[in-house]
Structures are given as structure tokens and as C-alpha cells.
Amino acid sequence: MFDFDCPVERRHTDSEKWDGCATRFGRSGLVPLWVADMDFSAPPAVVQALVERARHPVYGYTMVNDDVLHSLIDWLQARFDWQPAPRHIVLAPGVVPSIHAAVQAYTLPGDGVIVQTPVYAPFMQAVRTLGRSILENPLILRETAGRLHYEMDLAGLEQLARQGARMLLLCSPHNPVGRVWREDELRDVLVIARRYGLVVFADEIHADLVYPGERQIPLATLASEDDQLLTAVAPSKTFNLPGLGLSAVIASDPLLQEKFRHVLTGWHWSAGNPFSLTGWMAAYRHGAAWLDALLVYLQRNRDDAAAAIVEQWPGVRPVLPQGTVLMWLDCRQLGMDDAALQHWFVHHCGLALSPGILFGAPGRGFMRLNLATPRQRLLQAIEQCGRVAFPSFRQGC
Ligand SMILES: Cc1ncc(COP(=O)(O)O)c(C=O)c1O
Q1: How far apart are CA 201 and CA 203, in angstroms?
Q2: pLDDT tens digits, 316-365
Q3: pTM above 0.85?
């Protein structure tokens, strides 16, 4: 019914991932498996709604009608059994701007903000740009039955909170390592936050991209109304609409929410535009079947890509994601420093991957690969890299 195998030509659309690749990586003709968007068409219902809206030739200031919030609430109810009240929802341009707004709203220059590295780089950038202090609580990498996986260092988190950290930026599911946090882990985070008065910003932008058999639990469904918690959600990753730039922050504590709104008001941002709002409603109202089909497709991409890498890239160990379209690759056995690793994937393999070091020091020796592309392209890229580059690597090139 939905054809994810059919390649969509994205070149010459000003795509950052495709058209920005040569500038970013210093070479043309690479297979771009970096930026976290997908090479698939958005759900047909979204495309149709946007085309219809575009046909109306006036693109004026647009109000947020009731259905914008209710389409999100109904989605959260159906997928996560979570029904936030409309008054708890604040629309925001993107999740990264919301991280900045939240850090600005709840901390002062010099205050400590906890990030759990390796993590999405804008977490660190927001803290640094605003003159707050980054408190790193690195995730713990474990090996069980030959498989690599990450866990949260809850003791480390508590220690930083005890030492006076003001805020935690939680990534759930976690980019880049693909963890979907368990209920006991999330409950422990809430206990620590309450005990030490930490504000928690839960970035749940990848919440819908969780593989069949895994269960994403929104932190808010475990929290009480007066917990100092904000949750960011968006249709952008879920339905491949990140260019439309609209997200939401959900916070039930009135004072917490007021402070967040206050920062956004200062930016003079008017919520949404004709296209972001149209895409949002079409996606949340009519995108469920498309998403379910996508997740099945992505699961096979994940499993086939991991198997191919184990077989064809000796020395590289994939960390199987439970959620997100991203696969984290342990390349440490290749014995290269980060610059050499990046150069090698670009110039020997012809692949544009995200260097792990961008996600913080624990990402040293890792790379991140985006699985959301037609399977044939993905597996061909892995195969070609294995055939062309790995033999030469074995010979010491
Ligand atoms: C964890 C996380 N948060 C936020 C974003 C980007 O959010 P936005 O485009 O809404 O600013 C990404 C994009 O990859 C992400 O992985």
C-alpha cells in the first residue's frame, strides 16, 4: 500500500542531506546517510492536504484552530494512552528552539544543565550558547551476550543533581544510541528530579519511531501534574516533515509553562503557518497506517543493515536501536582517530555518516548511520563499502 522501496529524487530540492552533502563532507557523489530525515515521501494524506492548501493562493497569517491541539491529543491518546489537557500544550517552532527557550527560562548563566552523552549535539550547543555549564552524565556502554547496549547512569545523575544541577535534558528515545528507556529507568529519573528540584526537559521527538515489540513510555505518563517536567513532541520525525518546523511542548505545571511561554513571546513567534499547520493536522489525523507500515519497513532495514555490517565491515559493531531511524556504530576496533575515521568513510567508502564525536567525547570512535532510505540503496552502500574499502583497510591503508 505504501511504497518505501521507490527512490524519491531529492537532489536539487535544497535538501540539506543531499544538496548540502558535498559542501559538508568535501566530496560529491557520496551516499548521504547522515542528517536525521528520511528519504521517503510523507504520508499521501499529508501531501494531498498540502497541495490543496497551496492551491488557495493567499498565504496569510494563520490562526491555530482547536483541531490543531485536538489532533495531537487524540494521537497521544491512541498511541501512548496519554491525554494532556489542551491548556498544557504550547506550540513551538522546532524542538531545538524549545530546548533553548527552556534552558533560558529555568536557569541562569553559570547554572549546571545535565546532558547524557553521547547525545544530539544541539543539547550541548544550547547550554553552551546560553552561557550555562554543561554537566555530563555519560551513558554506560555494556555488552550482554555479545550485544552492545547503553544504560543511563542513574547514580551519576543523582550525584550531579545533589551537587546543584538545575536541569536535565533527557533524550527519549535517545539519539544517537537508539535506546527506548524502560519504565523503571524513567521512574528513577522522576524520583531524582523531585528529590533535588531538577527541571526535566524530555525531548520525545523520536517517540513514534519505535520498532515493533518495543514500547515508548512518555515520561509525563509516569509523572504527577506538579512535576517540573516539559515534554517536546512533534510530527516532524514521525512523518518526515522536519522542514515544516512546528512542534509542541507539553507542561502541566502552570508556573513552569508560563515561564516557557514568556521566552517564546519574547521571540515574537506566531505559532505555525498555513503549511506547517495543515501538514500537522493531516499527519496526526490520517498518518497512522503509513507510520505502522514504515516501522515494519524500518525494522527490516535495521536488521538487514546490522547483519550486513557484521558480515562485511570487520571491526565495526552496530548497536541495534530500539527506536529512532539511526544506528550507532562502534568503529573503535578500526583503530583510527576521529578525523581519520571520517576521512576513511568519505574517501574510501563513499559514505556520508555523522561522526560520533559530534555527540560528545563518549562518541569518540563511533559513527551514526541513518537507516531511513530505500533498502536497496542502504544495503548496496554497505556492500560497496565492504567490498571496496575494508579489504584495503585490512591491508593497512
Ligand atoms: C533528539 C532530537 N531533538 C530535536 C531534533 C530536531 O528538532 P527540530 O527540527 O524540531 O528543531 C532532532 C533532530 O535530529 C533530534 O534528534
Answers
A1: 6
A2: 999 999 999 999 999 999 999 999 999 999 999 999 999 999 999 999 99
A3: yes
**Closest atom, ligand 1, to C-alpha of 119:** 1
- Pocket residue to mutate for ligand 1, from 90, 95, 169, most atoms within 8 A of Cβ: 95
Which positions ≥6 away from 141 have C-beta within 8 Å? 148, 149, 150, 362
The full set of domain ranges for the chain reads: 16-43+289-394, 59-286
Report the CATH architecture of 59-286: 3-Layer(aba) Sandwich (3.40)
Amino acid, single-letter form, for residue 112:
G
Predicted confidence (pLDDT) per residue in 176-200, tens digit: 999 999 999 999 999 999 999 999 9
Pick the atom of ligand 1 nearest to 171's CA.
1
User: What is the Rg, in whole angstroms, of the alpha carbon atoms belonging to the chain?
Assistant: 21
Running DSSP on this structure, what letter comes out for residue 42?
P
At 225, list the grid cell: 501534574
Strand 31-32 relative to strand 351-352: parallel, antiparallel, unpaired?
A: parallel
Establish whether residue 73 lines the binding site of ligand 1, counting it when its CB lies within 6 angstroms of any ligand atom: no
Distance 234 CA to ligand 1 centre (A): 9
